[in-house]
Amino acid sequence: MENHKIYAMKFSKIYSLLVQKADKKKRTKQEVDEIICWLTGYDEVGLTQQLRNDVDYKTFFEQAPCINPNSEKIKGTVCGVRVEEIKDPIMKQIRYLDKLIDELAKGKAMEKILRA
């Protein structure tokens, strides 16, 4: 497994960037939290605890209670890379989250973002 720089970044830093991106497009922190919890299986308490523990991004995904099985329905490109073609499972989950937040920022309805 490749050692990507993003793995060592603090989840709290990335989280604030995700919230900021959503906020710029008139979306809410609550929507960002809902997406993160849907994807990872964390509840609000678990998400808050991970932020408080200041874990790195890789650890955040490694400790995720249950990656949503519907995440396999997430298709498309992030940073020029097709998410469905990513082999590394942690990187794939990171890019899934990127893709979902991109969809939120583009104004997509939550039901569609969450693959309901």
TrEMBL record:
Gene3D superfamilies recorded: uncharacterized protein sp1917 domain (1.10.8.290)
Database matches in InterPro entries: SP1917_dom_sf, UCP033199
Designated name of the protein: DUF2200 domain-containing protein
